[in-house]
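Protocol step 6 of 9: fold each sequence in the batch and record its structure tokens directly after the sequence line. For illustration, a two-sequence batch is reproduced in full.

Sequence one:
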Amino acid sequence: MSETTEPIRSHGVRITWADLPEQVRAWVTGQVGPVIEVLPQQGGFSPGTADRVHGERGSAFVKAAGERLNPHTPDLIAREIAVLDQLPGYAEAPVLLASFDERVEGERWVGLLVEDIAGRHPHTPWVAGEVAATLEALRALVERPLPEGVALPRLEVDLARDLSRWPHLLADPPADLDLWVGDNLHSLADRALDAPDRLRGDYLAHTDIRADNLLVTATGQVRVVDWPWATRGAAWFDTLVLLLNGRLLGGPDPTAYEGQLMDLGASEEDIDAVLTGLLGYFLHMARLPAPTGLPTLRAFQRAQGVAVAAWLRERWAT
């Protein structure tokens, strides 16, 4: 995955354990006992807390947020609770231990407690061994179709709006548009027209594969965490997103892994269409005001747009 001089880190600005309302902290201690140690975790863009909590009766990982931090974050945590409650065992997702969804002093707070998986995020820039281990973990997610009873959104429906942003860009191109993108604006828009339909499938898709949503255990196994965006869709999408993260954060040459996309059922046309749809999404979103409580998100989206544009430029040149 191509080397970058200053990798963009995917992180936001989080509250801490001490910032949680007493009612939320009491819920956690009711599960793990009096708290002995709290280890704040970095990564992700939620403004809520993300802590490893060690109590007298056990340990757990806790995420919690109130609607004043960001009006959408409690819904996102609630969505993850619903996902974790029904994922098949082969996903090896963190086990859901408890959940919280109550009004605290007039404000909705949502939290989840999952098993504390001993591990660390992959090294970035990426290293070859951890790329291979992550690819193996992603392949395990799609070794079989999702059971019919797992009620997840369809990937092509969930991303339909995101992958259809090119009309906004055609009507009002960003002032700082990349020259290659500007020269190919209409061709790119045409290529992305059927991007959502190319994501149809019946396999488990995490949809948000990044280094900060992965944990490397002591044995070198990679566990996928942070599941709110899970969907039912194409078997190759998560691997595509992983290769994008590698282009963004650097490491081994990602072109060496592109064959795995075809092994999982993608055609060259599928890859180009979905990458082009993602490019339109990142370019459009990067120019919007930052959402409440997420001051670093737009810069990260901009950096992803640069990485996707470079990838497409390479693909179109061959």
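Sequence two, same batch, same settings:
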Amino acid sequence: MFTIGLFPNTKKPSVAPIFDWIVRYLQDKQVPVLMLEETAAAMNCPELGCSRERLAESATLALTLGGDGTLLNTTRELAPHGIAVCGINLGQLGFLTEIELADLTPSLEKLIRGEYYIEERQMLDAAILRDGAQIIAASSLNDVVVAKGGFSRMIRLKLYIDGHLTANYPADGLIVATSTGSTGYSLSAGGPIVSPALRVTVITPICPHSLNTRSLIVSDKEEVRIEPQATHDDIVLTVDGQTLYHLKRGDKVVVTRSPFRARFAKFVGSSYYDSLWTKLRRSDPDDSV
């Protein structure tokens, strides 16, 4: 049976009325709705709550209500279970979300009728190696970033591709992004926009102290290793801008292609480039074209 897993951003006040409307709409259409127990309690509908195990077993499709951050968090959780995600944009740019509020009703109708296809996206796995042992492992849909913390001085980062020393960046940090994440932090740091159809990894330095430093695009099959060179411990690893780990001197960060792939529900006729054009213009208030 077609079952929706709902993942609202409970911290956004604007989510509640839209969430209530969606639940009533889906129930009127006889579509079962499930939520994680803690989220259901926060949204005042404990009767919809269930365990993570049950949701992973029963949900046909996940709907997120929020922005890209909500979708990123949900996708990382559901990717190992093969559940596709469709985002409803209640944020700003919403590069990853598929549904705008103005199109909510017809979009939900399409989902219920099965008028969508699944698009898979590359993910990354990041590991911290300390004294030869792996101490942290995390998955990312957008990017993995090694950067200085609050310390003002730059750091030096040695970059190895498949074990070969490739660059030695004096910079504030280094971004390792998927093609999906190329429109995120990497883009802000001057990196290229890469079609999500390409299975590549984009490496972009943050504020490099060099005039000839550029982004590097490598195959997603190649291992990326970053070795920070600093005399202090104020260096951090962030995953999708949401999870932070503190690095110590001598730590290494290894980034590889994840065995899991993110799955997104897309509508027939939707275009990545049309969406890119629309959402990039949102970030430019002076664009009146």
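Proceed to step 7 once all outputs are recorded. Observation for sequence two: DSSP finds seven helices and 19 strands in the chain.
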